[in-house]
Specification:
Layout (H helix, E strand, L loop, with lengths): L7 H8 L17 H6 E4 L7 E5 L4 E2 L2 E4 L4 E5 L6 E3 L5 E2 L5 E5 L3 E6 L6 E6 L1
Parallel strand pairs: 2-5, 4-10
Antiparallel strand pairs: 1-8, 2-3, 5-8, 6-7, 6-9, 9-10
The chain binds copper (II) ion.
Amino acid sequence: MRKLGPHSVLVSLLAIPLAFGCSGGGDDSSAAPDANQDVVSVTCPGAPAATFVTSGFAYSPTTATVSVGDIVEFHPGTGHDVNDANNAFHVGLGGDACFQFMAADSYTFHCSIHNFEGTLNVQ
Ligand SMILES: [Cu+2]
């Protein structure tokens, strides 16, 4: 875990509603408050709107498009992780987490180990 900066108190308050459901790796101290409201960590449902896994050295699918309010699962597999470019969400190495996307946006994320990228479009 990273050392918490001056915004850590605010981030912690915003993160309280995210404490339920499967943990996606905790709150990033550098995450913007908006991102925490737009992306909510939730328990994985039986049928997420989209599921990203890793196949070879790429996310599969590479790009997915879902609707506002949809839940997306990220299951990067052993040796890979998921890091949103703006720290809106994060899944640790080998993790499996679900997030509900509450605002229309385009999210680019990457594996910190191998740098391959994926894109999630929320519309
Ligand atoms: Cu990787």
